[in-house]
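Summary of Year 1 activities. Much of the first year was spent building the evaluation harness for sequence design. The harness presents a backbone, in tokenized form, and records the residue chosen at every position. We chose the following record to illustrate the format because it has been used consistently in internal testing since the harness was completed.
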């Protein structure tokens, strides 16, 4: 099963005869090869002769390899092997320390993502092969000016999936068009476009099948036109550890916060006083930019999407061809229900993850 490294992943090493244990961890990207020496080696003694169980939480070591430098916005590509820093290959070997010698216990080889499980789901949660929840999503479409091929911010986004050779996916356009099928030619983790380039005006269903023609995942992607406002395109790492794209269709506001330091100035002369010099001087002035953005009217299930956005540690605002890192300032939301709120709109605040004036040294 895949490892979700934002939650604890516990490895138990136990043998009635052991007085201690060891775990060796190898980590490598798909463009590399498995290291010849362990990336990490951890060891410990048993608590007591009557309690021989030893536990290792390996998640923190895995997360050092997951950086999310790239957010996928492919449009024309049918199969695209996802960026190497979106997941990491892992092999760990556990050993029992018996009679002064380490004896190999088990070897596990897997993949790890920057996903997480909820507390009530327990430890070592496996979220499956597809890094996006099932359901319905809308993307921005304005056929008069905003060709998604020319503007990355208007593309429908991707679904990341771990697949085997001969798995395949199908784009079926809404309204009775001809489905288009693509078969995978290799094992791996791939970025799949949510919407086929020929279906942007109508939208489509995306279905992923295994080699036995068994349906593994379904998503529904609909175009949505916004006549009054310029939608904001937000990409974030979701609970599966994959990039997810959402559009905030309604009004947005830009706010500027300025901060500085002030000190009392020693006058250059007392008589006559240079009034234009002043008594206080400002230094280290800089600012941050914040935005209030709105989803527009959404379904009750969208509350789960907003929850994942607020919990994400990597968020990008796709502004045209610019990928702008942001952080979400909103710390609390009311997850509306249709029975109480007939029309649901979520407003959140984001902040650019850098100062207005370049001050990085």
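For this record, the design step produced the sequence shown next.
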């Amino acid at each position: 099963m895949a490892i979700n490294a934002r939650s604890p992943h516990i490895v138990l090493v136990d043998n009635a005869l052991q007085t201690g244990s060891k775990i060796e961890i190898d980590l490598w990207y798909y463009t590399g090869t498995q290291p010849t020496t362990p990336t990490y080696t951890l060891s410990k003694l048993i608590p007591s002769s009557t309690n021989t169980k030893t536990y290792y939480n390996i998640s923190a070591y895995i997360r050092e390899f997951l950086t999310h430098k790239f957010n996928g916005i492919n449009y024309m590509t049918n199969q695209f092997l996802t960026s190497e820093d979106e997941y990491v290959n892992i092999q760990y070997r556990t050993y029992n320390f018996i009679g002064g010698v380490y004896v190999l216990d088990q070897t596990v080889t897997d993949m790890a993502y920057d996903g997480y499980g909820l507390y009530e789901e327990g430890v070592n949660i496996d979220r499956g092969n597809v890094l996006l929840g099932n359901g319905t999503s809308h993307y921005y479409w304005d056929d008069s000016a905003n060709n998604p091929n020319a503007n990355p911010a208007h593309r429908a986004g991707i679904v990341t999936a771990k697949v085997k050779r001969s798995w395949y996916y199908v784009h079926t356009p809404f309204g009775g068009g001809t489905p288009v099928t693509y078969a995978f030619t290799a094992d791996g983790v791939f970025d799949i476009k949510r919407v086929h380039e020929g279906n942007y005006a109508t939208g489509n269903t995306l279905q992923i099948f295994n080699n036995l023609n068994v349906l593994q995942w379904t998503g529904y992607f609909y175009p949505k036109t916004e006549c009054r406002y310029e939608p904001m395109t937000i990409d974030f790492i979701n609970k599966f550890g994959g990039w997810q794209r959402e559009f905030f269709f309604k009004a947005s506001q830009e706010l500027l916060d300025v901060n500085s330091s002030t000190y009392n100035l020693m006058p250059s002369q007392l008589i006559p006083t240079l009034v234009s010099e002043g008594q206080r001087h400002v230094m280290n002035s800089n600012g941050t930019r914040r935005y209030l953005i709105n989803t527009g009217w959404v379904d009750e299930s969208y509350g789960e999407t907003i929850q994942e956005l607020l919990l994400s540690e990597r968020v990008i605002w796709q502004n045209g061809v610019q990928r702008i890192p942001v952080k979400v300032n909103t710390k609390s939301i009311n997850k509306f229900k249709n029975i109480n709120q007939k029309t649901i709109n979520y407003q959140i605040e984001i902040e650019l993850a850098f100062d207005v004036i370049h001050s990085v040294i």
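The chain has two helices and 22 strands. Quantitative recovery figures across the full test set are reported in Table 2.
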